[in-house]
Amino acid sequence: MQANRGDVNVKQITLTPIKFSSVALEFDELIPDEIYSWSKEDFEKYEVPVGNSRFPLTDYYDIEVEGEAQSPEEVKMIIDGDAGRVKYIGGKMGAGEIIVNGDADLQAGAEMEGGSLTINGNAESYCGREMRGGEITVMGNVREYAGTSYIGEWRGMSGGKLTIHGNAGKQLADAMSGGEIHVMGNCDILAGIHMTKGFIQIDGDVTRWPGGQMKNGAIVINGRLERLLEGFELDAIVTDPEVEGRQFTGKYIKYIGDIGVNGKGTLLLNAEKNRHHL
Amino acid sequence: MEYILKNGIVYDPINEINGEKKDVMFKDGKIVNSVSDSAKVIDVTDKLVMPAGIDVHCHLAGPKLCVGRLYRPEDERRGVKPKTDITRAETGFSIPNCPATGYRFSRMGYGTVVEAAVPPLEAKHTHEEIIAIPNIDIPPLTLFGNNWFIMQFAKEGRIDDIAAFVSAWLKITKGYGVKIVNPCGSEAWGWGMNVHGIDDPAPYWDVTAREVIRALAQANEMLGLPHSIHVHPNDLGHPGNFPTTINSIDCMKDIKKNSEYRNQTIHLTHAQFHCYDGTSWRDVTSGVEPVADYINKHDHVTADMGQVTLDETTTMTADGPMEYDLYELTGLKWANKDIELETASGLVPFIYSGRNPVHSLQWAIGLELALMIEDPWKICLTTDSPNAGPFIRYPRVMSWLMSYQRRAEMMDNKEVHAWAGRKSALGTLDREYDFYDIATITRAGPSKIYGFEDRGHLGAGAIADIAVYDLEPNNFDPTRNAAAVEKAFSNALYTIKDGQVLVKDGEIVKIVSSKHVRTEVEGFEDEEKRILEEIMPFFNRYYTIKFENYVVHDHYAEPSSVYKVNASK
Fold it and tell me: pTM (2 decimals)?
């Protein structure tokens, strides 16, 4: 996936912000799959979508290109600063690496198929929407609908890995059917709603209702869960459980649900922090 | 302005022109026999020329479309195309936004598209959407099959009053003709029920589909409307439904036609959904043979295909109970829309797949219909868009009809499931449509069936709706080049509407307002007045809307093209 990383033949593209636009820029065309052969001149010719128009990328960024790439795998693109008004960073990317040294706007890594995207700040909503492969790491928080389906769509994230070092907002992983999400901070309501497969781990506290209408898959919560949905039935208290090939230590309360939709999903709560449910 | 379309290979079945190299001339939006020397020449030497296409049955404007767009944003993101200097942005695949609907039909060389189901209560909305759809003329069919007034009158056998009601309601809704959907069944849905077969009465009203179909057909012929009744029979999509289909047609064979232009007294729509044999989805087989045989032997009926195109699409019909059944079958999201006193519709997304045995059989059944009905004037090309597939697939359906090789290839290399071959006779049908047949099922036949004397042909006096395709019929074998057929019919070289070039080289070059095509009966005014007076107390009691707000005012239907019918009897 990340061949030659660290080798001399990585082509490094650095975009340094010089002007802020309050109307969002869209970066789904600036993915390694498209730009691996671009020279500096190509970038300077390129017009980026801004709202309903396009303007030269050079209006907004200083561009540096170092090295050569024969394939998208050999590309490392760095947005060296705040991208809080840049949407679709890494959208549909299939290979290579993108690093954002700041925040990212809506839809970062949406429909991503491979490669890696690292956001060293916070990400707005819809981060990793309908991800099919690859890896996204957010060092800060994400807002609503991370790793979810498109609005109205019943087929959600199906592969890849999304890691959030901070907190996650509402409706994480709606309609998830594969892949893995790890939230190291807290999580708001309805994580894993409608999920049919896949794995979610939340290390912090959860407000309420994880796994609403889940049919299958697994959710592990290591923090305190405020309110559980009525559709989850207590199965057992388990010690050192193994979930989808991952080993956890300690006691967990295991529920099966959501029985409202004949679900067979697994919800594990850290027993120590969730005594109030027993 | 005068034009001469030079040296094309012309297919114009109404005027019996079969691939002749000739010029087509038009002036001020109308076809003429001669033009002056100063006429502008458009050179289309050896290219395929036909009248612009006419779609006999499509869902493209109205409340169902809006519900579809609202509840399927995931469909809207397919087919996104940014605005240009001429066009607005396009979105959507099975339920495109209004401008995209017009552009896409126009690019395929179509000029007239029938909106097949307008609930009177939502007619205003339908006309508002027609205003937003450019470049095609749209005749809306008004729904009557589950209307409380009609059911009451049909039960009492008051044909004169039904005629007066239909005449009045076509004016009120600015409609073109009479549509009947699952007669009595959509009313039964208001009680959580359905009807099965044409002799199963609607609850409370105690009237049957047979009575409603016959009564509306008699009224239709009493008025002499340009189109016959347009029927979606009971039991749509149920295995073993073909006897219901034949009964629905056969029950009215004694009704006399009152029109010089059309031949039929009933149009059976999306016949594919109505030709299933068997008792369940496990033992279902094709029921096309008896239906096609009936149509071959009787001249009072025409049909359209409702061809499944094997796409992810959105089903939408004024057959509420059927959509609920579909929801139960798929488990996908379901929307239901009740229209007080008139009808009930539903929507469910649907993924037709060549890997699925039933969908593959449905695919085969649609093609069987077009190949087993011998007279191409009796069958039209439709996909019941978007129900069996979106209208942008018409060119693909044409390519299937034109190539036995392509159909066999699809069955051989597993693009469709083995059921397509095993449970239908498609594999044995080696008939291939030629360009003349294609022009018949997409232009000439629809023109006859709808009584559109001014379109669907290239005779002098017809409106100059013309399509030119980038194919050279004398130098091209459609039986061996399915992909090229599809590409050419998808991107017209020229689409000319009312004498104006709207599409050139597959791209929209001009936008014009769509005309609202409607029927107005003259000579029935006294009867209309009397019936309105009679029903008004009932209207005021049961409708939640005032009659004054119910009527579609003239400015909703501008510009319009009005077919006047003289019914002074």
Answer: 0.93
